[in-house]
Design a protein that fits this description.
The complex is a heterodimer of chains A (356) and B (358). Chain A is built from 14 helices and 2 strands. By secondary structure, chain A is an all-alpha fold. Chain A has a single domain, classed as ABC transporter involved in vitamin B12 uptake, BtuC. In chain A, α2 packs parallel to α13, α5 runs antiparallel to α6 and α12 runs parallel beside α14. Chain A starts with 5 loop residues before the first helix and ends with a helix. Chain B has 15 helices and 4 strands. In chain B, the strands form 2 sheets. A two-stranded antiparallel sheet of chain B has the order 1-4. A two-stranded antiparallel sheet of chain B has the order 2-3. Classes of the chains: A mainly alpha (356), B mainly alpha (358). At the A-B interface, α5, α6, α10, α11 and α12 of A face α6, α7, α13 and α15 of B.
């Protein structure tokens, strides 16, 4: 079906890519201010949605506004938030990773295996798991950037492969951790000193902030936007797009390792179905957070708000007394509404930018 | 890092944009000339089917060498029956990939429809025939809904069906109150779905029927021609007067209908509807279609390839079980095969079109 805005959109996407690809320049500076404004506004809009949702749930569910619930939402958001940072990088660079749910589940089982069978200290196991996560990310990145297989197929294959490997490694029952009084578990389960905020959430905030700085303030970040926005333009301005994408995949793998190590530290066992459909939740959060589907747009902050929205919906519906299974319907609806709004807002805003 | 392989001229350049490759391939592959290399294209497709068939035969020879029970008639029949639902829905998925779309919601839709079937048959007491008559059109409706959102709102099908994946799974759990619905059915309906004729399970016959219909439509009808044109080069297809929105809608509706058929067959075979049935089904279906050589980029693919892809999954599943491995080993090999076939496919495309990879 034809879309009357398409030509505009393509032109303005090129403009956007040029803006971020050219780097600091005098002519660009004025427009970058506007671009920055635009992105900030979009983030603000998403934040507004999150606040409204929070107020809605606070009014509807009596137990929503209790410290217990809010901390539970924060915990729920931790894993999602860490993975969403990596997914934001990939989306911005114009790729995606469907394998993260399996990847996360596989690394969790690996944590448990090292802990139980090999008797390793969990801190060492965590390092091993993060390194393996990076390596699996590198394999994805290699196949996508060097061989040229689309990331959708590559990571779909990896999804099935790792899910299979997880099932083969697990003995059919959750493996509990030994010696849960080790400092590794104590630190992860504790709250941040002097606050009721769980350390898991603090870890997620740190990862999010590092991600936001890298994507928003470094050359790597602007190269990633250029890569996803318009690869040909990016390449002709000297950006090694393959390397950018490769690094995004590696980062995603490392974040899977961090998330798996943290969850194992908190719950002390590796559930069999861990990470099942987690990739869908993460992609939903990133999309709700306003990250563009076609690369070159989105912010880590937006994704963070998206994570909070998805986590609130899941917890909020349960507290309203609705069957917890409605969260799937709600999540689906939120994805469609967010994408629809994004397309409309994005097209309008981009057109204004192109005309300016 | 060099980009020798991944040169700007390469066909892999559609990888721009997150879902560029998977979803909007049509929009980004506009520069691909279709008509001049049609004869070569056809040869390529023929070769591809042959190559995949050869891989299947090789597996088929390898497994009997390692396990004695593989080649018994019981196992061969079981082997194909176990993948017949995958094969049935894979026909629709082949249509979707050819027109440049994808449906991730088929597993959830299957679960949702099988629960509806249970509700109609058992809780409302309508009987299985009426339930089937209701469930298949509802399946078509789910497909039409996907297609409408995709085509009218211009949201990529990956996202639309991702949202539907979560939504229908929820609905299945809500409607069923998280409990399976079972019936102790007897009679013609259950024979026609779960039974067998002359030793051949009806499930296999239904799958083959879907494949034959799909194959005829793709090869010998106007719609089939339009489908390849739409996926291969949507701009050109639109310019030559093809209503590509309609072509895509029909592919979505067909897939939804096949989910309805699969739900009917599943219920007839198992006599039970479980809210979790169909979990992970979408990846097996897409795996079968991709292993069968249908390109994710649109415009390529055959039902014969999908049949072979389905059989390869069947061989691996049975072989792994007979060798003493779990479902895990099957998933692992399926994942490996998806990537391996994708890479071989890329290399074959490059070999066939050297001029595009200077």
């Amino acid at each position: 079906m034809s879309n009357p805005h398409e030509p505009h959109l393509e032109e303005s996407e090129e403009l956007l890519a040029r803006l971020s690809a050219e780097g600091p320049g005098e002519t660009v500076a004025a427009e970058r201010g506007r671009l920055h404004q635009l992105l900030t506004n979009r983030d603000l809009a998403i934040l507004l949605v999150a606040v409204l949702l929070f107020i809605f749930f606070a009014l509807m569910g009596k137990r929503f506004l209790t410290p217990f619930t809010i901390i539970e939402i924060a915990r729920r958001a931790s894993t999602l938030g860490i993975l969403a940072v990596g997914m934001t990088f990939l989306f911005v660079a114009g790729e995606l990773d469907l394998s993260i749910g399996s990847h996360y589940g596989f690394l969790l089982i690996l944590m448990a295996y090292q802990n139980e069978t090999l008797g390793l200290n969990p801190a060492i196991a965590a390092v091993v798991v993060i390194v393996i996560g990076l390596a699996i990310g590198a394999i994805n990145g290699f196949i996508v950037t060097k061989i040229g297989l689309p990331s959708f197929i590559t990571t779909l294959g990896m999804l099935a492969f790792l899910r299979g490997a997880t099932n083969m490694m697990s003995s059919g029952y959750p493996i509990p951790a030994k010696n849960t009084d080790l400092p590794f578990y104590q630190i992860i389960r504790a709250n941040f000193p002097g606050t009721p905020v769980p350390n898991m959430f603090v870890a997620m905030l740190i990862v999010t902030m590092i991600g936001a700085v890298i994507l928003g303030r470094t050359k790597f970040g602007s190269d990633a936007y250029a890569t996803g926005g318009n690869r040909t333009a990016a390449r002709s301005s000297g950006i090694d797009t393959a390397r950018i994408k490769f690094r995004c995949f590696v980062a995603m793998g490392g974040l899977c390792g961090i998330a798996a190590a943290l969850l194992f530290g908190r719950i002390g066992l590796a559930p069999l179905s861990a990470g099942l459909n987690l990739e869908l939740q993460v992609i939903a959060a990133v999309i709700v957070g306003g990250v563009g589907l076609f690369g070159g747009s989105g912010t880590v902050f937006g994704s963070f708000i998206g994570v909070l929205i998805i986590s609130m919906i899941t917890s909020g519906l349960i507290l309203m007394g609705v069957s917890q299974y409605w969260d799937g319907v709600a999540t689906g609806a939120v994805i469609l509404v967010a994408v629809g709004l994004n397309l409309i807002v994005g097209q309008g805003a981009l057109r204004r930018l192109a005309e300016a | 890092m060099s980009e020798a392989i991944n040169s700007p001229q390469s066909r892999t350049d559609y990888g721009d944009g997150v879902l560029g490759a998977a979803l909007s391939r049509g929009d980004l592959a506009d520069d691909a000339p279709v008509a001049p290399r049609r004869s070569r294209l056809y040869r390529l497709l023929a070769n591809r089917d042959a190559a995949i068939a050869a891989a299947g035969v090789l597996l088929f020879i390898l497994f009997p060498l390692t396990t004695k029970t593989f080649l018994t008639e019981f196992n061969l029949t079981n082997m194909v029956r176990n993948v017949s639902l995958i094969g049935t829905v894979a026909v629709g998925m082949t249509f979707l990939l050819i027109v440049g779309e994808i449906d991730l919601s088929v597993g959830s839709v299957l679960g949702f429809l099988v629960i509806l079937f249970g509700v109609f048959d058992d809780r409302l007491g309508l009987g299985p025939w009426l339930a089937a008559l209701l469930v298949i059109p509802i399946g078509v409706t789910t497909g039409v809904l996907n297609g409408l959102i995709r085509v009218l709102l211009n949201i990529p099908s990956f996202i639309v069906t991702l949202a539907m994946l979560t939504a229908y799974r929820s609905l299945a759990l809500i409607i069923s109150h998280e409990r399976p619905i079972s019936v102790a059915g007897e009679g013609a309906f259950f024979w026609l779905t779960g039974g067998a004729i002359l030793g051949i399970p009806w499930l296999i016959i239904w799958m083959l029927a879907a494949m034959i219909v799909g194959s005829i439509v793709l090869r010998s009808t106007r719609y089939g021609f339009h489908a390849y044109a739409t996926g291969g080069n949507p701009e050109a297809a639109r310019d030559s007067g093809i209503n590509i929105g309609r072509v895509k809608m029909i592919a979505f509706a067909f897939t939804g209908g096949l989910c309805g058929l699969a739900a009917t067959l599943l219920f007839g075979y198992l006599h039970v509807a479980e809210p979790t049935s169909g979990t992970g089904f979408e990846f097996r279906v897409i795996g079968a279609v991709i292993i069968g050589g249908t390109a994710l980029t649109g415009g390529f693919g055959t039902i014969l390839g999908t049949l072979i892809g389905t059989l390869i999954i069947a061989i691996i599943t049975s072989g792994m079980v007979l060798l003493g491995y779990s479902q895990g080993a099957t998933d692992l090999s399926t994942g490996f095969l998806i990537v391996a076939v994708g890479i071989v496919d890329l290399l074959m495309q490059r070999a066939a079109m050297p001029s595009r990879f200077s």
